[in-house]
Design goal:
The complex is a heterotrimer of chains A (about 600), B (about 100) and C (about 325). Chain A is of the alpha/beta class and about 600 residues long. Helices cover about 55% and strands about 5% of the residues of chain A. Chain C has 2 domains: about 170 residues, FAD/NAD(P)-binding domain; about 150 residues, FAD/NAD(P)-binding domain (3-Layer(bba) Sandwich), CATH 3.50.50.60. Classes of the chains: A alpha/beta (about 600), B mainly alpha (about 100), C alpha/beta (about 325).
């Protein structure tokens, strides 16, 4: 292997160099700005995590698995997984192999950034070694892998349905420039290397291509323009990168360590939030995931458009998008990079300034009487609009001989989550305080909660020393296994609807199913668990009209009907209330099912 | 001021010609569905805060149209959304309340 | 040969129209899915404003149409367009060629259990207006206590309610509630009776007299406020919550019996007929008349006519009058054809 040019330089590398220094400089400045925006304690936490071996190792592993191999995407959609990892990992390997080539053959040139990229232009092959042909083989192999990925990407642009995506994002101009540049990079590299292969050497891809071209081209005049073109598209790609969705490549590498450091979103504009916004690859998985997508009018209100508007600073649209969302969390659950769509929106809502801030001077929840009951049942506001729920819970507790007290039978106060999701964090705090005092005054040891909205709030935002917050599904399961309740199986088959706040919100998917499975037949809807479709009744949305919600409810019901079950079971009074309006079959809370299918230990039916 | 031996008591009449409706009009601009309330009282009946403070969105809307200060009522709203659910006209009451907090400044 | 006229629905409108068509010399054929004629009225006890017997009305109409062809427990399976008429296929295998069809498919009562917050089917003492009427007619009902001390009526259940899918006023429920309140007071003179209303719409002949009578003689309490939820006290008694909008305060009240005034929706079978005959459905869910002034009995299709509650809520006299009017429209149509 010898150098063809003693200077080791040719002007065609300039576009590449400009692009690379620009993007490196941009990212470096970006990293410092993000770090400066972090609150002091978060920054310290981050630094500490970088030197903690466990998190440091996790960072490397996560970056490798998520950014290069796209493991999460593979699990979800193999075709999309292959497409992304072939390009990302293939490109990474080509850069890595390029460096190895330089280190092996021309170690004195390793300080030149462009050498590993344009290696084949600068060298001539004198003798072939096993090392060299292996490297060349690998180079061609990974180039082929990338080209297959690019081919898939082009097909996906034209026919996204083949990839299981009904809708994809409409791309902005910079994104399109970036996209076409990215598509052009690798075919141009193949051409460039092929034209040079009789000088620099090559492998199974480049040598035959070189032979074919030489059959009718007869000279090397195509060589230099192709290397120029290759360098120019690389330069173009890197220059538009910070202004396009491809910014997600460097941003995600920053997001992973920040997340692994245990940082939480504070605000929606700066620091950790900013990195999340930049990490959005604009892939559009959230468009199909979003329950609002059943209406064409709401297609542009899912998270991918929120991150886009946040980057553009379009405040009118930011407000619109953040208000409309149901906060069902499906976009977050399916997001490949972990953009927290609902939390970003709550943070945006909390930026609003309101002249009135309720102090709740008149609101005093009646403290539950100190009856000595160990179990305190908190039904929540919705239990008053869905009387069947409270009645069933009470009936079960009585059958099982539990000493309980219903805290808000005659009306209590709200758990505070609706106030929180409206972005009024301090006001929510005030409500939490009022409830905390009342609960602690009761002397109960178990706070039994049936509403998933309240349950999530109690878990996340309340500090109740000495009181265990228990979800009723787990509690009824316990009563059954202890023998306080005896099951009588019913012949009905239920399909279980995962409420957003319970499933994606609290990670409880299996307990209600196990409970139902013991008492009746159980079927699965095509979309369930993480992918369960919001009933449309969520209080998360501040602006959706009743008519728009109806469409979502019907779409969610269609998904449940597809299971062909006799009835629908859920574990959320709001879902039940919403579904009951339109459902063609009974909608029951799991408590109703438990009540109907059990009897107490003493009294046989 | 001269003491005439008597004072003028405030009229108990709502003088609609003089009532300041500007706040109501600003509210309607932000949340147009405020106009379709039919005063059925469902919101006030179901309101979580009503037993403590007599809060009723119906009263708030009507009070605003009659030029009254409705801020004391709003001080107890927990935004729990029950009124949204029971409103037979499908008014987005939570947005209404958030908008109300904007017209008072 | 007498000309056939197919009447879809054997409620009072269909029966009245058959009577007129017989008199005009046609051969009316009633298709009724129940095993008896008379529809909702046959299950009602007494009718306002004269408190006359609903059974008598149905019996009298039945006697007057004894010569008509009546297919009970039968539905229309499809309607084919022929030149200048239709071929109506029935589920019993009969097919009838006809030049004119009268749709009198009537209404359906709103299913009160869809308003979860009222606890119909959940609480022991919550019934509907139809349940109460059946009890007046002699059917036993364990939900009605033997000596209730307080009874509530909720107006507008499934009417004027976007959430229940019907934003229209069902117009007869206010009067029915006043009538039923009086009838309950007749049976339980010691009970206190409360009517929870949004607006009292007592528009017809003698209705206001009923209202005055209910206040003066029977001391029925009228509370202006829509019930928003029904709960149960610790000792198992019903408790309703409303806002007394005239006082401006939330109100709660314990009750021994709660009657829900279920509203009127279009019969869902009318939608199937509309599909078969390519008829228009109006935004309120009822069938769409040619216009809502002089053309209420006419559809946009030649030879297809309407009578009764299939085009909107009707009182009994309105349904009967419309049936007579439809019969005349059909007569003129067949004469011209």
């Amino acid at each position: 292997m010898i150098e063809r040019f003693s200077s080791g330089f040719h002007p065609f590398v300039l576009p590449f160099l400009v692009g690379m220094f620009f993007v490196l400089g941009y990212c470096l400045v970006g990293i410092f700005r993000i770090l400066a925006q972090l609150p002091r304690e978060d920054r310290l936490k981050f630094y500490l995590s970088l030197i903690t071996p466990k998190t440091a190792w996790k960072n490397i592993r996560d970056i490798f698995c998520d950014c290069l191999l796209h493991v999460k995407l593979w699990r979800r959609n193999r075709l999309l997984g292959y497409m992304h990892s072939s390009i990302a990992f293939g490109w990474f390997m080509i850069i890595l192999l390029g460096h190895i080539e330089v280190i092996l053959f021309l170690p004195e040139r390793i300080h030149l950034f462009y050498y590993p990229i344009f290696f084949n232009y600068f060298v001539a092959e004198t003798d072939s070694t096993i090392q060299g042909s292996l490297l060349f083989f690998l180079m061609d192999f990974f180039l082929l892998v990338i080209l297959s990925g690019i081919t898939l990407a082009i097909i996906k642009r034209v026919r996204s349905r083949l990839f299981g995506m009904r809708r994809t994002t409409r791309q902005s101009l910079t994104n399109q420039v970036g996209l076409y540049a990215l598509w052009a990079i690798f075919p141009l590299r193949l051409l460039a290397e092929s034209f040079t292969a009789h000088i620099s050497g090559g492998s199974f891809l480049t040598i035959p291509a070189n032979w074919v071209f030489r059959q009718f081209l007869g000279n090397d005049l195509n060589m230099l323009p192709t290397w120029w073109a290759y360098s120019i598209v690389l330069g173009v790609f890197m220059v538009v990168l910070p202004f396009s969705r491809y910014m997600h490549i460097p941003a995600e590498m920053m997001l992973i360590p920040l997340r692994n450091a245990g940082l939480k979103l504070r605000g929606a504009r700066k620091g950790f939030a900013r990195i999340q916004v930049l990490s959005c690859p604009s892939c559009g998985v959230c468009i199909d995931a979003c329950p609002m997508s059943v209406s064409k009018a709401n297609l542009k209100d899912c998270t991918v458009y929120l991150t886009r508007q946040l980057r553009r600073g379009n405040e009118r649209r930011i407000a619109e998008i953040s208000d409309k969302c149901l906060l069902c969390g499906k976009c977050e659950a399916l997001c490949q990079v972990g953009v927290e769509g609902p939390e970003l929106r709550i943070a945006l809502r909390s930026e609003r300034k309101y002249a009135l801030s309720p102090a709740f001077k008149e609101v005093h929840p009646a403290a539950p009487a100190a009856t000595g009951a160990k179990v305190l049942y908190y039904g929540g506001c919705m239990s008053q609009l869905v009387p069947s729920l409270g009645r069933s819970v009470v009936s079960i507790l009585e059958k099982a001989g539990v000493d309980y007290q219903w805290m808000d039978r005659d009306g209590g106060i709200c758990c505070g989550r609706p106030m929180l999701t409206a972005g009024r964090l301090e006001e929510a705090e005030r409500i939490v305080k009022k409830n905390t005092e009342a609960i602690l005054a009761s002397g109960a040891e178990v706070l039994l909660v049936s509403c998933p909205i309240c349950y999530r709030m109690f878990r996340e935002k309340y500090t109740l020393p000495g009181v265990k917050v228990v979800h009723y599904a787990a509690y009824f399961q316990q009563l059954l296994s202890e023998g306080a309740l005896v099951a009588e199986r019913s012949d009905l088959c239920y399909v279980y609807h995962d409420p957003c706040e319970l499933g994606r919100g609290c990670g409880i998917y299996e307990e209600p199913r196990r409970l139902l499975g013991q008492l009746s037949g159980i079927a699965e809807a095509p979309k369930s668990r993480q992918e369960s479709i919001c009933c449309g009744g969520s209080l998360g949305s501040l602006s959706l009209s009743f008519a728009q919600r109806e469409k979502m409810t019907r779409a969610a019901l269609d998904n449940l009907y597809a299971s062909k079950a006799d009835a629908i079971a859920t574990a959320c009074p709001l879902c039940q209330w919403t579904f009951s309006r339109y459902a063609d079959r009974p909608v029951r809370d799991i408590a109703e099912v438990v009540d109907a299918c059990t009897h107490g230990k003493q009294n046989n039916p | 001021m001269t003491d005439f031996g008597f004072t003028l008591s405030r009229s108990a009449t709502v003088d609609l010609d003089r009532v300041d409706r500007s706040r109501y009009e600003r509210l309607v601009a932000l949340a147009p569905d405020a106009r379709i309330c039919m005063n059925c009282g469902s919101c006030g009946a179901t309101c979580t805060a009503a037993p403590f403070s007599g809060m009723s969105l119906r009263k708030v809307l009507l009070g605003l149209q009659r030029g009254q200060d409705v801020r004391p009522l709003l001080d107890s709203c927990m935004l729990c959304g029950k009124c949204t659910m029971v409103c037979p006209r499908g008014i987005n009451t939570r947005r209404l309340i958030l908008s109300l907090s904007k017209v008072y400044d | 040969m007498k000309e056939n006229v197919v009447i879809i629905g054997g409620g009072i409108a269909g029966m009245q129209a058959a009577r007129e068509l017989l008199l005009l010399g046609y051969n009316p054929m009633i298709v009724e899915q129940q095993d008896h004629l008379g529809g909702h009225v046959s299950r009602w006890h007494r009718l306002f404003p004269d408190l006359s017997s609903a059974q008598d009305l149905v019996r009298r109409l039945g006697e007057e149409i004894s010569e008509a062809n009546i297919f009970l427990e039968t539905k229309v399976s499809y309607i084919n367009r022929l030149s200048g008429g239709y071929l109506v296929m029935l589920t019993n295998g009969v097919s009838i060629p006809t030049k004119a069809i009268l749709v009198a498919s009537g209404f359906r009562l709103f299913d009160a259990s869809r308003k979860e917050e009222y606890g119909y089917g959940v609480y022991d003492h919550v019934i509907t207006n139809a349940d109460l009427e059946a009890w007046f007619g002699g059917a036993p009902d364990s939900r009605i206590p033997s000596s209730p001390r307080s009874i509530g009526f909720v107006h507008c259940v499934g009417s004027r309610d976007l959430k229940a899918g019907n934003s229209q006023c069902s117009k007869v429920c206010c009067m029915t509630a006043v009538k039923q309140a009086i009838e309950l007071k007749e049976r339980f003179p010691d009970a206190r009776v409360y009517c929870f209303y949004m607006d009292l719409r007592l528009f017809g002949k003698k209705y206001e007299d009923f209202y005055i009578n209910a206040q003066e003689q029977w001391e029925v309490n009228f509370i202006r406020g829509r019930v928003s939820e029904v709960g149960e006290t610790q000792d198992g008694q019903l408790q309703v919550k409303a806002e007394d909008t005239l006082v401006g305060k939330p109100l709660k009240l314990r009750l021994d019996l709660l009657v829900l005034m279920s509203g009127m929706l279009c019969n869902p079978d009318a939608a199937a007929i509309a599909r078969m005959a390519r008829l228009d459905v109006d935004s309120d869910g009822f069938l769409k008349s040619l216009d809502n002034l002089g053309g209420t009995t006419r559809s946009s299709r030649p030879g297809i006519f309407y009578a009764g509650a299939c085009t909107g809520t009707k009182t009994v006299p309105e349904a009967l009058a419309e049936a007579r009017s439809a019969a005349l429209d059909i007569h003129r149509y067949l004469q011209e054809a």
